[in-house]
Amino acid sequence: MTSPDKKSGEAYWKATLSLLTVILILWFVVSFGFGIILQPALDSIHLGGYPLGFWFAQQGSIYVFLILIFWYAARMNKIDREHDVHED
Amino acid sequence: MDLKTLTFVVVGLSFALYIGVAIWARAGSTSDFYVAGGGVHPVVNGMATAADWMSAASFISMAGLIAFLGYGGSVYLMGWTGGYVLLAVLLAPYLRKFGKFTVPQFIGDRYYSNGARLVAVICLIFISFTYVAGQMRGVGIVFSRFLEVDIVTGLLVGMGLVFFYAVLGGMKGVTYTQVAQYCVLIFAYMVPAIFISLNLTGNVFPQLGLGASVATGEPFLAKLDMVVHDLGFQEYTSGNKSMIDVIAITMALMAGTAGLPHVIVRFFTVPKVKDARSSAGWALVFISILYTTAPAVGAMARYNLHATMTPGVLTGETFAEGNGLSYESRPEWMKRWEATKLIKFEDKNGDGRIQYYNDKSKDAEFNAKVEAAGWKGNELTVDRDIMVLANPEIAKLPDWVIALVAAGGIAAALSTAAGLLLVISSAISHDLMKGILTPDLSEKSELLAGRLAAAVAVGVAGYLGYNPPGFVAQVVAFAFGLACASLFPTILLGIFSKTMNKEGAIAGMLSGLIFTFGYILYFKGIFITPMAENIPANWLFGISPEGIGTVGALLNMVVAFTVAKFTAPCPEHIQHLVEDIRTPRGAGAATH
Questions:
Q1: Handedness of CA B56, B405, B215, B226 (dihedral sign)
Q2: For the segment B174-216, what is each residue's pLDDT rounded down to a tens digit?
Q3: Is the CB of B313 inside 8 Å of chain A's CB atoms?
Q4: Closest partner residue to A9 among B71, B90, B579, by Cβ?
Q5: Closest residue of chain B to A88, computed from CA coordinates
Q6: Where in chain B is the domain with CATH 1.20.1730.10?
Q7: Could you tell me the pTM of the whole model?
Q8: Is residue A61 part of a domain?
Q9: Are B311 and B355 within 8 A, CB to CB?
Q10: Do the Cβ atoms of A35 and B247 come closer than 8 Å?
Q11: Of the CATH numbers 2.60.120.200, 1.20.1730.10, 3.40.1190.10, 3.30.470.30, which one belongs to the domain with range B3-303+394-468+475-582?
């Protein structure tokens, strides 16, 4: 029999891992996806004077990385409280 | 005041600032020495991490690399920022919860083995020394160019300064001097970038200027593509490396960043797990100010360089008679930099003018025009490092901006060197001595040992800076590849796999390390002659030595899981330890 404590620990870890998965998918898509693999195709679209693929590789991916980290930090704080494992 | 005196004054003032901060923040305990007492605010820590991270390579070399690689330079931009996402979500909060002083200590405790700890110490020392040699070299170059002192004096001054605040102040002194150094370096980077962006595109923000238009109304990047194309170079906004190699290099730089011990250890200094998460974000905020500006600096410096050397290229009259810059009337900055041999002119066709173009172009039409114009080969060699250092001079900015760039370059090199020296000294005093060799060391003797180790490390770093083992850039590729293939996967498995055991971890770490080390040595031969030519046809899966860390990391994990499957399972109490580091509650200050 698993203790309630252990069960809630598992639920917390599951919630953490699903957030992680979403973050890492987005991380991969903007850099390896838009910046590298799809760069030749995206370059036909322009963002101001920037070809879009080039923009993702040299600017856009960095901005998205920033948003991802702060979003992760905020979501994790919420998950911590929901599972009652937050710091005091 | 002439430029040299002004540079001395600006650099001198910045040194006085660092020394003042170091005296104010000196270390009193081992906790101060290793993790700055564990009470650093996440925003302050973010700023210190940014200075720690942005080395002489970021400040001096990166924009120049991008200038000559164009789109190909994106691997550095994405690689060296994307690593912070990995760090923030996969490593930093958990290592902070674990609450110890050093990276090898985590590996030793998690894998219940001093052997694993020792392997981690070896990886750490190797990674950090290769990296620190590059920094000391950067200090030497800046000193010799801007202050016209010889490279040894430059090195000695740099070593003396780092010695003073790293040895006295430990992590606490280093943290607060890094904050000061960040301010100096970012100011020094942004001022010329803003001026140049304003000049070329009328836009204050270089990030927007790069996507804006030049005076004639054409988009800047389209114009730059045309300019480099007309001179026979690869178009700026497209790459020339194979996609698999670009992916492997980017991944190796990302995972390498997340696995660099001097970066990881910065997250041990914040008070809470929560702070470790947000602090990685703050670090990236401060880093991206420079990293989103660098592409603009690179592209605009490249444009200015061609516009200076071949003025006609802007109006499509590349091959017009008398178009190349006359060597006699070359600008002042070129004369100054010729003395350092970072820019060289050789008049191959004897016309007294500079022909700067790609003489290895495979475009038959272009080559025919070159032939008709009587050009006899490219006559100018430009070292990429001067793209940042000479940038203010090329753009005709005031002297105080040039002096500022010198101070910024030194700040970037010193802050990174200090961070590296600290992880080396703590690996020796805390892991090797206190942890493995002499466990009954008192706190006071350990602190002394830490200071002695830092002092020795400064000396070795200075020596390596004077006699760098091979070309510095090659050596830095080494550091990232090894961090990516050895430390990163091992720490990652330690957190995300409860069943990974010590046999698996050690076997994985060693195979990742030896494979990557061997591959780089095979093609680059840092200490030996390369055993094969470093060309794509010879590479494994078409992956260059810069990107091989990615394969090394995969190999590390495959070996680790295979060995773990056939050896004794991970003990119960370690599995509980892993469960414990996964939840934030109960994170105290970092302890022994």
A1: negative
A2: 888 888 888 888 988 898 899 888 888 888 898 888 887 877 8
A3: no
A4: B579
A5: B585
A6: 3-303+394-468+475-582
A7: 0.89
A8: yes
A9: no
A10: no
A11: 1.20.1730.10
